């Protein structure tokens, strides 16, 4: 702590005057001060001696977190220590997690707890030691690289949806490595990971990180890299300072494949995050983004499988229908003739059924009309009934004649199409002994036995010579 100014030094003369006043107030010059009076006097003098907040630096020790959220600890150096209290409202505004042994800078108000006569500091604000200098360096580097256009949005490259091989730049001993590998194994086990090790903390970390990223860039084509992850877990500003190196940012932008950073926690932002093609809040989130395509595809696989199964079943059904149709077209003519005959019988049966239904319907209507007739209209109704009956018989006779004519036409067509009718015209067809119909001369070698089918009966026959032998010879000149 810096030396106190002349205004804040302890005023002993004033202290003696107030002590004398306290004695006189208690009832005499020789009266002894009570503990309460002593502590009240000491508290007033401390408040007068330190009227403004002070900046104090020291190391945290004896840290206690109360259930109310208040922090109680001591600040110490090599020679002394002082008790401190950080109320919950201020503790929630901290950008880091205080820990025993950590060097911090605090803005505090000196206070005196009269009930126990203890001197302490009420902390108004606290930051890790050196954080102010680190932040100033961060702002300076950010302004420099931004002026170079290193953070321009048009320079950001799209992240591949389905990267098969990714590079991972981090420490082999970091928890971030385990988090990334576990996440990738659960979400996209088919992805391959190439590790490019480097320190992520300390004086050598910026150089090692830039070298590892440069190695990944040089070996990107040989190793088949499609994406690179630069990750590190959370820590203090000093721990993350390695990622604010300008050389690392330039190496990152020179990498031929896109780079995702996952450095620290969500509230931490580094120069590497600004230069990267995409910033993730944490290392695990970086792994989730890299595997998002494969993870979504795995979720769609059952739906795609069901769609493929339905398409295959639909295609198979179409082939079966086409096969049935082809088989139907290749039926024997005699079978088709038999089906036509059956169809004719069915039409005859339907024709008779229609006639009976029409007759019954007209008889029913006639009966209803007869019942609806009243006594005065009986004669006219009977006359109308007789007229309707005549019309009904005439209509039925006409319909019957039309149906018989149509039936006769169908029978004539059927007879004309029948094989027996065709044979009766003088045609015949020949078959081999195994029943095969002869369609080509090549089926009858010389001396072959076959049967001629006529309209009335069959005639056995034998081929005398082949068609080639029966051809007339051309006379020589």
Question: How would you characterize the overall build of this protein?
Answer:
- The protein has 4 domains: 6-132, OB fold (Dihydrolipoamide Acetyltransferase, E2P); 157-290, 3-Layer(aba) Sandwich (Rossmann fold), CATH 3.40.50; 333-417; 424-468, no CATH class.
- The strands form 3 sheets. It has a 5-stranded mixed beta barrel. A 5-stranded parallel β-sheet has the order 7-6-8-9-10.
- The protein is built from 15 helices and 13 strands.
- It is 49% helix and 18% strand.
- Residues 1-9 and 469-477 have low confidence and may be disordered.
- The relative contact order is 0.05.
- Strand 6, helix 5 and strand 7 (192-197) form a beta-alpha-beta unit.
- The protein is an alpha/beta fold.
The chain-level mean pLDDT equals 83
- Tell me the CATH architecture of the largest domain: 3-Layer(aba) Sandwich
The low-confidence runs, each spanning 5 or more residues with pLDDT under 50, are 1-9, 469-477
Number of domains: 4
Major sheet description: 5 strands, mixed, barrel
Q: Tally the beta strands.
A: 13
Say which CATH homologous superfamily of the largest domain is assigned. Cobalamin-binding domain
């Amino acid at each position: 702590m810096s030396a106190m100014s002349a205004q804040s030094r302890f005023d002993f003369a004033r202290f003696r005057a107030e002590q004398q006043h306290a004695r006189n107030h208690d009832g005499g010059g020789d009266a002894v001060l009570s503990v309460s009076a002593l502590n009240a006097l000491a508290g007033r003098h401390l408040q007068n001696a330190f009227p403004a907040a002070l900046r104090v630096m020291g190391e945290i020790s004896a840290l206690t977190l109360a259930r109310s959220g208040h922090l109680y600890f001591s600040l110490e150096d090599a020679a002394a220590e002082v008790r401190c209290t950080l109320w919950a409202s201020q503790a929630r505004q901290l950008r880091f997690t205080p820990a025993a042994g950590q060097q911090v800078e605090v803005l505090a108000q000196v206070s005196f707890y009269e009930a126990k006569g203890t001197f302490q500091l009420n902390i108004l604000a606290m930051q890790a030691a050196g954080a102010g200098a680190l932040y100033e360096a961060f702002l300076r580097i950010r302004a420099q690289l931004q002026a170079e256009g290193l953070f321009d949005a048009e320079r950001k490259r799209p992240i591949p949806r389905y990267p098969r091989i990714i590079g991972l730049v981090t420490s082999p001993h970091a928890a971030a490595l385990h988090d990334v590998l576990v996440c990738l194994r659960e979400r996209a086990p088919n992805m391959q990971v190439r590790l490019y090790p480097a320190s992520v903390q300390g004086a050598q970390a910026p150089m090692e990180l830039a070298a590892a990223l440069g190695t990944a860039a040089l070996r990107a084509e040989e190793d088949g890299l499609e994406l690179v992850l630069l990750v590190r877990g959370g820590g203090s500003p000093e721990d993350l300072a390695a990622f604010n190196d300008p050389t690392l940012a330039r190496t990152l932008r020179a990498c031929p494949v896109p780079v995702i950073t996952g450095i620290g926690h969500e509230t931490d932002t580094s120069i590497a995050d600004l230069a990267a093609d995409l910033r993730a809040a944490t290392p695990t989130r970086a792994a989730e983004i890299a595997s998002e395509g494969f993870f979504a595809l795995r979720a769609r696989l059952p739906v795609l499988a069901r769609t493929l199964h339905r398409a295959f079943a639909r295609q198979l059904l179409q082939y079966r229908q086409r096969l049935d149709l082809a088989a139907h077209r290749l039926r024997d003519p005699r079978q088709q003739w038999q089906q036509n005959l059956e169809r004719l019988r069915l039409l005859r049966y339907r024709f008779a059924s229609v006639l009976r239904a029409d007759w019954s319907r007209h008889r029913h209507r006639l009966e209803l009309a007869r019942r609806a007739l009243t006594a005065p209209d009986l004669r006219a109704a009977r006359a109308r009934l007789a007229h309707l009956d005549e019309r009904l018989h005439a209509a039925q006779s006409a319909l019957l004649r039309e149906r018989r004519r149509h039936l006769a036409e169908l029978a004539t067509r059927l007879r004309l199409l029948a094989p027996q009718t065709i044979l009766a015209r003088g045609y015949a067809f020949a078959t081999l002994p195994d029943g095969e119909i002869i369609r080509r001369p090549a089926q009858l070698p010389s001396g072959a036995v076959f049967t001629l089918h006529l309209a009335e009966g069959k005639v056995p026959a034998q081929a005398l010579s082949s068609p080639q032998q029966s051809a007339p010879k051309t006379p020589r000149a």
